[in-house]
Amino acid sequence: MVDPAAPASAQSVATLSSPDGSIRVHLDLDDRGVPAYQVTADGEAVVDRSRLGVVLGDGDTLGVGMEVVETQTSEHDETWTQPWGQQATVRDHHRELRVRLRSASPPEREMILVFRAFNDGVGFRYEWPEQPELDRFRIMDERTEFRLADDPTTWWIRAYEHNRYEYIYNETKLSEAGYALHTPLTMAFPGEGPFVALHEANLTDYAAMSLRRTGPTRFQADLAPWSNGVRVYGEAPFRSPWRTILIGDEPGDLVTNMIALNLNEPNQIEDTSWIEPGKYVGIWWAMHLGMWTWGSGPNHGATTEHAKDYIDFAAEHGFDGVLVEGWNRGWDGNWVGEGADFSFTEPYPDFDLEEVAAYAREKGTRLIGHHETSGHVPNYEAQMEEAYDLLERLDVNALKTGYVDHGMDFPRETGGDSLAREWNYGQYMVRHYRRSIELAAEHGIMLDIHEPVKGTGLRRTYPNLMTQEGARGQEFNAPWGGGNGPDHIPTLVFTRLLAGPMDFTPGIFNLDAEGEEANSVPTTLAGQLALYVVLFSPLHMAADLPKNYEAHPDAFQFIKDVPTSWAETTVIDAAIGDHVTIARKDRTSDDWYLGAKTDGSARTVRVALDFLADDTSYTAEIYRDGAEAGWTSNPMDYEVETQSVEANDTLQLRLAPGGGAAVRFRQ
Ligand code: NOJ
Ligand code: CA
Which site in 54, 180, 261, 562 is 20 to 30 Å from 594, CA atoms measured? Predict the structure, then answer.
């Protein structure tokens, strides 16, 4: 591979090809001993020559003045099974290159670059082996560059903003995007593609990476700093997360790309029988609508009586859990961004925790725990052990946590009188979230984390990390939130969802609501049903008030039927930000489910049903927009119909503006 951008004196180190030869990574070292990589797909440049390295606290740059000690290549082909997921089995087929570098002058230090080339992308990381000249160290900057070979259309949100990851995505040329961008960063190269997403995998004891602009289409890894300016504290042996470059011909290839999971460690939880994907309802939307309150008082939501009503509803309709928010002391006053008053064991007097948990069990469902921490980690960690013990004793096996704090405001104890303040995606919080995942696993608790650090595939190692928020979810369609707009879902699928499952909390049925239930959900009712398939999450909520489901038992049937863990996933058609149609096969039956979601424009999608089993007749239960439907005009106009179909049929679905369709194919 000849690279015109490489300095004339650059020495080629190695070229790594994916097993099918389509993806190639080339490594070289220039005459100053600076290592660099470049990536091509089908012979076309994706990432131009981009430098590698880190700057350490003592001023040494591991990435200048290096020499190659040895290179090794190997190939790996393995198929493994997920306890739950978008697909049952995952093939990990890649070729690996390990390049051992050493600084040519003292202090003599070693760093290993590890590259893996898959047929649909690349992962690479740094390793710092145990060595005399490197013990405890500080990373002040990571010099990893991404020089994109073109100026692709890019879907992006800004990093280092107040509200973590909860922003509407922008769509511009890469050269017109912001200065600091979160990953996953999704791009469509001009012309025939490819579609590319930059992200990271296995974020362990490190700071999350965002991307800092260094040129029109040139970015550098930006590690969220501690409040003292250090990016990462390490101790050799140590290693960075994997930097990932997903590459596909179609947008859907990014959705079914398994590189992130393949770059995480295998499952560490021996007995996974208690990990149960499922659906839940809860005392939640009424607070976002302003009808009930989290805090105590006459409109307190989390009362024993309300909880029992929800449990009855859940039991009647087969839901696995009932979330109750606002059950614990600490919500009165200004809990947002404060949170030092929260107790995670003491309920409000009008909520009988023991009785509610027991009632749920009796009825064949379960209470789901809720810990809003407001990001006050010192307060939460002081109680975590006791709080998780309590959940275990009550036989509560799922917990939603929340970290409503902002920007670089997450408190950290320093040993002195005052608290330091940190980002929720720096190393401090990355460590905290991991402690919570591990402690939950020890207590047999599944986690749903709101305001998390972005997903990086850890669910492979800890399959009790079920789902996370980490984007604008349904809550922003509540009266307080301003709405997400109809482009949001067809964008989320190809951006935030690449990081892992999302607890979006779909299923709002009361869409032309007035008075206290008024909201700004930018979809039709059929569009809400589509979300259960289009947005992958092993725990999905039916977020609306029970009475709104009782008013539409026919449409509600889809929410009751739809599973949340899949044997297979196939993206049938999509244009990022415009529309998306996904079909998924149930894990535990031969049924298939389909979701189609459009933006503000009406369109007709034609779905070739060739994913169905041959020579088999299916009943298609179709939930579609009515003839008059539209998210602004008539959001609740829907139709439910059945049709007999086979694999060689084509289904035509008309989606209204802001609408969608959901289908169950039953054998
Ligand atoms: C923000 C979460 O995203 C939301 O689901 C929750 O209801 C509130 N925080 C209160 O914890
Ligand atoms: Ca949130």
Answer: 261
Ligand 1 mutation target, pool 332, 376, 404, most atoms within 8 A of CB: 404
Residue 375: nearest ligand to its CA?
A: 1
pLDDT of residue 1: 45
Amino acid at 111: M
- Taking only the tens place, the pLDDT of each residue in 345-391 is 999 999 999 999 999 999 999 999 999 999 999 999 999 999 999 99
Tokens of 626: 């009515």
Spell out the long-range contacts of 174-181 with Cβ–Cβ below 8 A and sequence spacing 24 or more: 174/148, 174/216, 174/217, 175/151, 175/216, 175/217, 177/213, 178/213, 179/212, 179/213, 180/210, 180/211, 180/212, 180/213, 180/222, 181/156, 181/157, 181/210, 181/211, 181/213, 181/219
pLDDT of residue 6: 62
Say what the pLDDT of residue 2 is. Answer: 46
475 is a catalytic site residue: yes
Q: Residue 10 has what pLDDT?
A: 87
* Tens-place pLDDT, residues 613-656: 999 999 999 999 999 999 999 999 999 999 999 999 999 999 99
Task: Evaluate whether 602 touches 654 at the Cβ level (below 8 Å).
Answer: yes
Domains assigned to the chain:
11-262 (2.70.98.10), 278-470 (3.20.20.70), 525-667 (2.60.40.1180)
Q: Which residues line ligand 1 (CB under 6 A)?
A: 284, 325, 372, 402, 404, 450, 469, 475
Cα(390) to centroid of ligand 1, in Å? 22
Q: Which ligand is nearest to the CA of 325?
A: 1
Q: Which residues contact 33 (CB under 8 A, 6 or more apart)?
A: 64, 65, 66, 67, 103, 104
Q: Which DSSP symbol is given to 363? A: T
Q: 325: which 2 tokens?
A: 């928010």
DSSP label of 248: E
Atom of ligand 1 nearest to the CA of 473: 3
Is the overall model pTM greater than 0.90, yes or no?
yes
Given the CA of residue 294, which atom of ligand 1 is nearest to it?
10
Question: For the residues of 23-62, what is the DSSP string, one character each?
Answer: EEEEEEE-TT--EEEEEEETTEEEEEEEE--EEETTS-EE
Q: How far apart are CA 132 and CA 118, in angstroms?
A: 34
Rounded CA-CA distance 428/453 in Å is 11
Q: Which of 200, 258, 318 is nearest to 564 (CA)?
A: 318
Which residue of the set 145, 200, 469, 475 is catalytic?
Answer: 475
Q: Is residue 342 a contact partner of residue 328, using CB atoms and an 8 Å limit?
A: yes
Whose CA is closest to atom 7 on ligand 1? 284
Q: What angle do CA 164, 165, 168 make, to 5 degrees?
A: 125
> Within the chain, which residues score under 70 in pLDDT?
1-8
- CA separation for the pair 265, 241 (Å, rounded): 12
Q: Which of 489, 458, 445, 469 is nearest to 580 (CA)?
A: 489
pLDDT given at position 339: 86
